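Bug report

Summary: structure tokens for Cytochrome P450 differ between web form and batch submission.
Environment: batch mode, default settings.
Steps: 1) Submit the sequence below via batch. 2) Compare with the web form result.

Sequence submitted:
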Amino acid sequence: MHSVIIAVFTAGAGWLLWKLLSDFFVRSPIDNIPGPPSPSLLRGHINQIYHRDGWRFIDMLGTRYNKVVKLNGLFGRRILYVFDPVALQQILIKDMDSYDAPEWFLEMSNLTVGRGLTGVRGEQHRKQRKMLNPVFSPQHLRSITPIFFNVAHKMCDGIEAQIGESVETVNVINWFSRTALELIGQGGLGYSLDSLDKPVANALGDALRELLPAAFEISEVQFLFKHLNKLGSPPFRGALAALLPMPTIQKLRELIDIIEVESKANLADKRTALQAGDDVVVRQVGEGKDIMSILLRANMAASEEDKLPENELVGQMSLMVLAGTDTTSNSLTMLLDIMTQRSEFQDKLRAELVEAQAQYGTDIPFDQLMNLPYMDALCRETLRLHPPATYIYRDSVKDTVLPLSEPIIGNDGSIIKEIPLPAETSIMIGGRAWNLSREVWGPDALEFNPDRWLSPLPSNVTDAHIPGPYSHIMTFGGGGRACIGFKFAELEMKVVLAAMIPKFKVYTSDYRDDIVWNLSNVMNPTVGKESMKPEFYVKLERLKENTKA
């Protein structure tokens, strides 16, 4: 028996070793695509791609190379970095059946948040998205706008209590993070994750807040998940993970267990309330308008063929919090950072908001709020210039050919008009490179210029037909796997700004020179390059009512 175990282990180790090293021995058409020289035989460009100070490397790809770039991953694995508009159309829309989320990404998503929208492919993904589409419609967002304003006003009350009548230094990202969590809690899950008036611990909210930073620590080896997932049964892999002497892995296991237990308990409470009738549901925090209440109702009414299983419903809950918290809070913080350095931006925004509040009331209705031109321009420009999520991944799921908008010169001097891609080719969508392209956006592409959105965009932008769902940019991805909640996130940003900016004047703090914006799964600011704690300090002054100053 002992010899059998050794033989099985040896065979498994040999298979894994071949999978890891086979890219060194197989030629690929991608080898002829220009790219920066690999600094490491085994690690490739991984150190630059996943370094917290990797912005310079990522931006260099967008300026030095011609829309497709060859990179190297671990163990010789090739990565095609793409920001060519025709290629993006092909990958994300025209030939989307030939490309999908990588297996390692699916396994990572399933491991961390369950079988939600990011953790499934093909028909199951389409089925989930079809059921979720109505809850992100303008009609539904219109109905939850008052709930969002209630949360934003609580945030402002908390800040007022903190600063009093003085000009005080405030860690604003802490307030934005807590507020985004509560907006998702009330608008998404239908219960409170952070009351904002006192520091009350919430197991689910705290675990989800810590999950992304912990996951980023193992980003360098994330592609191994698709291979490791084939080793034995889930209980076997779980037992194996428990034995690994790696603090990050053990922290991830602890967070994942908390998320699963808390999400299942919340789902059970929500189902019980729905079964008890509408009177019980409307007395809950989300008043029955939250995403999970509507999703559960739709799922209960769906045919057996269209019903989502329990584990996929649980996955949607965790995914909503994870996807909608740090992205929104960090984008708001970035915009505030910009407005402290250019005070005319916040002055114009405040004047627009005060005027709108005089016409429509303190809580500006959804349609009027979403169409305020200057606030819309500020949000669009922030999301263009500073996309919170840097990387979007795809794999070719079969042999295919990728067309280009214009020929490039290969390493061998040949003219390349299209790229043959073998199955399982790794692709990294260069959304940031597209958003910052001078060729597309003009000579001021790297400057923050909200006025570009107040007049017709240049034809270079509109004629490219980029597949992003929002404003001709790639911040929210594109195609069938584009971020389904981008309008939800936009509403979060605008409600918080509408509540905050008329009440407070924002100034640069004494910490500003020490603030570093770090590249991560979601960009985040810290005080200094060594800190791992998200912090961003501004000085806030409470304004008198209805002032435009």
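Above is the batch result. After comparison, the two runs are identical; trailing whitespace caused the diff. The longest strand covers residues 400-409. The radius of gyration is 24 Å.
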